[in-house]
Design a protein that fits this description.
mainly alpha; two-stranded antiparallel sheet
């Protein structure tokens, strides 16, 4: 059943997993940025890479599901991955895009703050910039499985593409 304003709970598990992994990332990245010592650096890298891996799986699953739906629905990339244009209820879109914004912000800030403590460029916290893949993948998966999209034009016209006056197809 596609999501709408009366059914904002559709796909709740995706939202919860995204929120829990984002919270784990924020906690590990902030603690690691403050302490910047073992084992916290290793924990932060492990959490960031795990979030990235989950995001890649969600992204591919969502992409595959969206391709299947694109046969009958008009799916735009921005609508799918940013849940805009009424694809998701406002509460879901706001929550998931907020989580994506947190992932981007914390990943960049912690990587920049601890970019060079020993004179060498780079930091283990730079792995945090991979985490927004979790948000993009979660958004895409939610949109592909539960989003509301307009039907393709061919579905509206009874299965045939619109014809020009000369009888040819557009």
């Amino acid at each position: 059943m596609p999501a709408n304003e009366t059914n904002p709970g559709a796909g709740g598990a995706i939202v919860v997993v995204d929120a829990l992994l984002t919270a784990a990332f924020v906690a590990s990245a902030v603690i690691s940025a403050v302490v910047f010592d073992q084992p916290w650096k290793a924990v932060a890298v492990t959490v960031a890479v795990s979030c990235f891996a989950v995001g890649v799986v969600a992204f591919l699953w969502g992409y595959f599901a969206a391709v299947q739906r694109s046969r009958r629905d008009d799916i735009a990339v921005a609508a799918l991955y940013f849940l805009v244009d009424g694809v998701a209820p406002r509460s879901v879109a706001r929550t998931m895009n907020g989580l994506l914004a947190v992932q981007v912000t914390v990943g960049l800030v912690t990587a920049i703050v601890r970019s060079s403590t020993d004179g060498e460029p780079g930091s283990t916290l730079a792995f945090g910039i991979l985490v927004p893949m979790l948000g993009l993948g979660s958004n895409g998966l939610w949109g592909a499985l539960h989003g509301t999209f307009r039907p393709r034009a061919t579905e509206v016209h009874g299965g045939d593409p619109p014809r020009r006056q000369d009888g040819s197809h557009d």
